[in-house]
Amino acid sequence: MWGLVRLLLAWLGGWGCMGRLAAPARAWAGSRGAPGPALLRTRRSWVWNQFFVIEEYAGPEPVLIGKLHSDVDRGEGRTKYLLTGEGAGTVFVIDEATGNIHVTKSLDREEKAQYVLLAQAVDRASNRPLEPPSEFIIKVQDINDNPPIFPLGPYHATVPEMSNVGTSVIQVTAHDADDPSYGNSAKLVYTVLDGLPFFSVDPQTGVVRTAIPNMDRETQEEFLVVIQAKDMGGHMGGLSGSTTVTVTLSDVNDNPPKFPQSLYQFSVVETAGPGTLVGRLRAQDPDLGDNALMAYSILDGEGSEAFSISTDSQGRDGLLTVRKPLDFETRRSYSFRVEATNTLIDPAYLRRGPFKDVASVRVTVQDAPEPPAFTQAAYHLTVPENKAPGTLVGQVSAADLDSPASPIRYSIVPHSDPERCFSIEPEDGTIRTAAPLDREARVWHNLTVLATELDSSAQASRVQVAIQTLDENDNAPQLAEPYDTFVCDSAAPGQLIQVIRALDRDEVGNSSRVSLQGPLGPDANFTIRDNRDGSASLLLPSRPAPPRQAPYLVPIELWDWGQPALSSTATVTVSVCRCRPDGSVASCRPEAQLSPTGLSTGALLAIITCVGTLLALVVLFVALRRQKQEALMVLEEEDVRENIITYDDEGGGEEDTEAFDISALQNPDGAAPPAPGPATRRDVLPWARAPRQPRPPGPADVAQLLALRLREADDDPSVPPYDSVQVYGYEGRGSSCGSLSSLGSGSEIGGAPGPAEPLDDWGPLFRTLAELYGAKEPPAP
To answer: Where do the Cadherin domain residues begin and end (predicted)?
Structure first.
């Protein structure tokens, strides 16, 4: 079999070698002396003349770069050479008769370094392949036509100030598009064009380093360095490119803080409370960032007791504040020293220290009128809900610092208690409830209490009083929402109908824990299962509820676990509906089943029963009206009064009246002598009955008859109500003051003498009475 082969040529000084290589066909027999089939080796039949083309070469005519030839070609003109692949027909063309390959335009290796082509020999007449196709490569030979470039430039780098010589700053890298494997076209050398003597660059690696020590950021912070990269090993004739490197010196803590002045003077009024800003101090530090952060402290104990100093949020200034209340009458000035120290100190620069400084501070206290001061900055009080008005909540207290004996008056700022739920005692600051509180309506009441000096109303101070209403179990649990649901008449037993949720507005202990329970027993149409999480599941029992036109009202009992436990009852409406196969509702009203002949027997019986009941009620009503008219007839022998007034209650009863002898409360000294005969009582029914006067003859006169009977009732002691009015004019014996009642005493008019002994001697219980009636008259002039 004939095949296409590739001829490999060697480099000779950058030019492609011209040559011709033919491999004759050889045949090998089998093993010596051993018969067998002959093994044939097909010789290579292609001849190659050239494989390289110089880039950027532009001549007047196409350049011959190679020749294709096959042993099949006998020079008779019957062989045709074809060329396909990258650039075939445009960049590279072939002579079909001779197989010569020409390049038609200038090539750039940086755009495409090689081309892969496919050669084939065919019969010119029939286009039948004479040889299998073979692949070969044409390479573009490089020339130095590209300068170095820095793809990542310009560069920015940072190096700490005061760095040692040779400290690495950054590495710059240039790229040359020429072929690094051919000559020195891509061999680069780096040099510093601008930036000396501060920085240097490694010629081979491009690493930029510091060239001098102790570069100070405070002197110069930024440097611009220009780096050049040159190919051809830096020799003359090479191409070059440059870039800039901006080097910034980062700060280190190499400068100690320094106060700009040695003495600071401040003043503060004595009414300034703890935390009041007195003044600011700043020690100057030229460093930046964390290296300039400072901490301030008071060195002397005298100043640290009354004042404190801290660093502001920026970490630069010292804030001098009041630590405890000041008193102008006790002390009028303070003198102390303040020290500023760097918080972050680098051990490498301790030789440039010490990193701290000290300044003197003098604070003058100014006199000022002081309002009352409360014992607490804010008050937090609690009170249970539902307590009666007047319940004690707590007490606030304030005092006048200038004059502790000066009285203080307390009041509640109206806008802080718009509902007037609390009151305060003006004298002692006791806070009480003015109305019952409801925690569910409002938990916190934020009052503002005003304390004012009675001597100077302008001196007043305020304090916030937060009153928390404590919860009690006073709300029964309820359903979270009204529930109106449905269930299909074809639902399976145990199916979940609805999840019912409950809520309790209370939150004390177990008050918010709610349990639910539904109707019990085997006859229940629905089942309620408590989920023990404040909800319950409405389930269909084993016996489904029969369909009916009216929905079912399922009662549910809810109770909490508070002390005492509260409960309530709610109702869930459930309709039994006809459903489609997909579960959607078709109808919730069962079809009316009417007899074709009219009303059913049950309906007729119900109508007859209702009519009979109505007739019975009418007859009963007429009979009662007739009986009432007969009872009021004037010719009745029975007494008219007995039909008008009936007394079924005798008050205390005869047993209670007889069990207690009320005559013991009568004054035995002033009692009238008893009448002869047996004693009579006006509060019990007498044994004897007064005789009834006969009715006057003649025609019946209703008015005259009623007047007669009324007079008989007034004169008859046996007719109720009985007179039970008693006069208690005697307080008993054994009291040193005697009787206090004036019912049994004589009238003393005209300055008659008073009691035998003074009222002041009767003790503290009669002090008020002695002040009213026992005061001595002033002596006559």
So the answer is: 70-150, 151-259, 260-374, 375-479, 479-592
Residue 223: CB partners within 8 Å, gap ≥ 6? 195, 198, 199, 246, 247, 249
Computed over every residue of the chain, the mean pLDDT equals: 76
In angstroms, the Cα distances linking 585 to 161, 526, 547 are: 84, 19, 14
Q: How far apart are CA 102 and CA 61, in angstroms?
A: 9
Quote the CA–CA distance of 68 and 84 in Å, as a whole number.
13
Q: What pLDDT score does 589 carry?
A: 61
Phi then psi for residue 384, to 5 deg, are -70, 155
Q: What is the pLDDT of residues 579-604, one digit of tens each?
A: 888 777 777 765 443 334 455 677 78
The answer to whether 628 touches 636, Cβ cutoff 8 Å, is: no
| Other Cβ atoms closer than 10 A to 151 | 8
Residue from 47, 61, 50 nearest 141 by CA:
50
Query: Three-class SS of residue 703?
Result: helix
Q: What is the mean pLDDT of residues 512-523?
A: 67
Nearest Cα neighbor of 393 from 438, 427, 423 is: 423
Does residue 738 have a pLDDT over 50? yes
Contact in structure between 449 and 373 (CB atoms under 8 Å): no
Which letter, b or e, does each residue of 370-396 get, where b requires 16 or more Cβ atoms within 10 Å of its Cβ?
bbbbbeeeebebebebebeeeeebebb
pLDDT of residue 367: 81
Tokens 């601008």 -> residue: 194
Count Cβ atoms below 10 Å from residue 279 Cβ, excluding itself. Answer: 18
Question: Measuring CA to CA, which residue among 250, 255, 249 is closest to residue 342?
Answer: 255
More confident residue, 354 or 50: 354
- Structure pTM? 0.39
Number of H helices, E strands in the chain: 6, 43
Please check the confidence at residue 623 and state whether its pLDDT lies above 60.
yes
**270 touches 246 (CB < 8 A):** no
Closest by Cα among 111, 2, 23, 10 to 52:
10
Whether the CB-CB separation of 497 and 544 falls below 8 Å is answered with no
**Backbone φ and ψ of 575, nearest 5°:** -105, 135
Percent over 90 (pLDDT), the chain: 25
DSSP state of 258: B
Of 752 and 380, the structure prediction assigns the larger pLDDT to 380
d(CA 655, CA 645) in angstroms, rounded, equals 24
Distance CA 634, CA 138 (A): 152
CA distance linking residue 278 with residue 365, whole number of Å: 10
Tokens of 664: 């013991």
Q: Residue 513 gets which letter from DSSP?
A: -
Q: Residue 332, class by beta-carbon neighbours within 10 Å (0-12 exposed, 13-18 middle, 19+ buried)?
A: middle
Rounded to an integer, what distance in angstroms lies between the CA atom of residue 723 and that of residue 744? 22
pLDDT in tens, 630-656: 655 544 444 444 455 555 555 555 455
Helix (H, G, I), strand (E, B) or coil at 712: helix
Written as one string, the DSSP assignment of 410-460 is EEE-GGG-TT--EEE-TTT-EEEESS---TTT-SEEEEEEEEEESS-TT-E
Q: What backbone torsions phi and psi does residue 131 show, to the nearest 5 degrees?
A: -140, 150
| Per-residue confidence band for 310, with pLDDT thresholds at 50, 70 and 90 | very high
CB neighbour list of residue 161: distance below 8 Å, 6 or more residues apart: 215, 216, 217, 218, 249, 250, 251, 252, 254
Specify whether the CB–CB gap between 683 and 718 falls below 8 A: no
Q: How far is CA 677 from CA 43, 280, 674, 680, in A?
A: 178, 112, 9, 9
Assess contact for 439 and 421: CB atoms under 8 A: no
Q: Are 498 and 508 spatial neighbours (Cβ–Cβ below 8 Å)?
A: no
Q: Assess contact for 479 and 568: CB atoms under 8 A.
A: no
